[in-house]
Amino acid sequence: MFLAWNEIKNNKLRFTLVIGVLMLVSYLVFFLSGLANGLEDLNKEAVDKWEADGIILTEESDLRLQQSVIQADDYQGDGSEEYAELGQQSAIASNGDNKANTFIFGIHKDEFIMPNVTEGEEFADEGEVIADESLKQEGFAVGDELSLSSIDETLTIVGFTDSARFNAAPVLYTDFETLQTLQYGEAVEQGSEQVNAFVVRSNNLNEVAVDEELQVVDTQTFIENLPGYTEQNLTLSFMIYFLFVISAVILAIFLYVLTIQKVSIFGVMKAQGISSRYLAKSVIAQTFLLSLAGVIIGLVFTILTGYFLPPEVPVSFNYLDMFVYAVVLILVSVIGAFISVQTIVKIDPLKAIGG
Predict the structure, then answer these.
(1) Residue 148: enclosing H or E segment and its boundaries?
(2) Which strand (E) or helix (H) includes residue 243?
């Protein structure tokens, strides 16, 4: 460690460049992980907020909420501790000045998926909705009258709730009467007994008994089958994994070049009796210090960046994930240093000093 630290102190510019490269790679890894978490939350935070264990959909719906249409009396709670009816409609909502793509969820106020209100009040009359708070950033406010694309009815925002986005769009919660008026218009009576899904809480989903044409899936499976969710997560995860490999290769190349430049010095040291093991440990220690410094600086810059990003950027940092990624980055960097260790072990003192 002494030799490694002394060399770093005496070659500040050279090792600062190495730390800078590691810092940039670390910054990119941490930021991508935050972006992956943020995009993941955009898709599922409304479902997470229900704190449900499963969801009942039709077999032929391909696990898509919109494609599932169920008669309300097809499930009466068999095998579940709690269940809630859920209806869904997508629409572009406009308050005259701003537009937003939204999902309208029809629910019953006395069931567990009713959201908490962070501003305003709960919906009480037909046509009233509670909106996700992200709509405030798009220029919507309590009291706004919303016109909907391809639908003659209007809605009124009476309150806001937090963490209510589904499939990357804000959710408007309303009662079933309002939802079915939007869906069926004057023919509302024909669809008054239909829902899109039942949301259930149960310690054992296998005990939830449904008809043959229905299926019970756990919430994680339902989320993973949201359009684009899995593809998006896999893409970002692969980018992060490739960055691990890239950081190991970059550091290995840097250390190898530095080792080649010091072959004669290592030869003299070995001629003086310093063992290859001691020199190898010095290189490993040096790599650890460089990668540790680069990762810590990258982490600090990433967190600082998060404070200055506009709310529209979907970044959400999971500090446990970031700690794991930091450890992996340091580990792969140390593994990359073993190429230099092999070079040191093969140095012949006589050839190195020109004997």
Answers:
(1) strand 145-148
(2) helix 229-261
Count of residues making up the chain: 355
Residue in 217, 181, 180, 174 with CA at minimum distance from that of residue 197: 217
Return the H-helix or E-strand segment holding 105: strand 99-107
Residue 103 sits at the vertex; the CA angle it makes with 108 and 318, to the nearest 5 degrees, is 100
Q: How far apart are CA 284 and CA 42, in angstroms?
A: 42
- Amino acid symbol at 38: G
Please give the angle made by the CA atoms of 304, 307 and 309, to the nearest 5 degrees: 110
The pLDDT of 186-203, averaged and rounded, is 78
Helix (H, G, I), strand (E, B) or coil at 263: helix
Place of tokens 């940092």: 317
Q: Which of 102, 38, 33, 24 is nearest to 310 (CA)?
A: 38
Q: In the numeric block, which tokens belong to residue 211?
A: 């008809």
Q: Is the Cβ–Cβ distance between 202 and 38 less than 8 Å?
A: no
Q: Which residue has the higher pLDDT, 19 or 351?
A: 19
Give the C-alpha separation, 31 to 317, whole Å. 8
For the stretch 132-176, pLDDT in tens is 998 998 889 999 999 988 778 889 999 999 989 998 899 999 998
Q: Tokens standing for 342?
A: 């092999």
The angle subtended at Cα 23 by Cα 19 and Cα 24, nearest 5°, is: 125
User: What secondary structure does DSSP assign to 154-200, as a single string?
Assistant: EEEEEEEESS-EETTEEEEEEEHHHHHHHHHGGGHHHHTTEESEEEE
Q: What is the pLDDT of residue 187?
A: 64
CA–CA distance, 278 with 282 (Å, rounded to integer): 6
User: pLDDT, tens digit, for every residue of 90-122?
Assistant: 889 998 888 999 999 999 999 999 999 999 999
DSSP string, 281-348: HHHHHHHHHHHHHHHHHHHHHHHHHHHHS-TTS-----HHHHHHHHHHHHHHHHHHTHHHHHHHHH--
